[in-house]
Amino acid sequence: MLDKSHKPTWTSFEEATKADWDAVMEYEEAYNAALPDRILDAIRSLDEEWTPYPVNRYQHSLQAATRAYEDGADEELVVAALIHDTGDILSPYNHGELSAAMMKPYVSERTHWILKHHCVFQGYYYNHHLGGDRNARDKYRDSPYWEDCRYFCHEYDQKAFDPDYPTRPLEFFEPMLRRVLNKGEGHMELNETADA
Prior knowledge:
single chain, mainly alpha, 8 helices, globular
């Protein structure tokens, strides 16, 4: 149980003691345990009333996840489909990178790569209408995950705008999200070494 009565007296990291850092880590573990709830809230915040798309981003996210689930994708990829556009909330022009960074401690290199690059792969379907290069994704052809990302975008993302598609509710995906977020590496900086 966190001791909320003790207020730290250090004012810089270099002044903090091992006991201070133990208290910080105890707090962070408690705070981080609520990460799934914060991500679920972020997904819900995509449920805007007006959108130029046939469905809003919330419905799109649920539909992409449903399509991945129905296709037999592994749980990690289903969760990736669910959260792939949550980065839009804070970083609309590079939302894929933000969504990928958010999930990096919890998913495989493959899933992280798909999340990070899905935006440029999606451009295949519309860049040419907006003056861009629809084949921009080809600069990543040498990646072992190129085909996985192409498939993710083609089968789950770009076609997840059907208002009549039988989409599963967020509650269906919540246990999956919690399981994926439960298997993380923790503080990634603690895994770094000077010789890496």
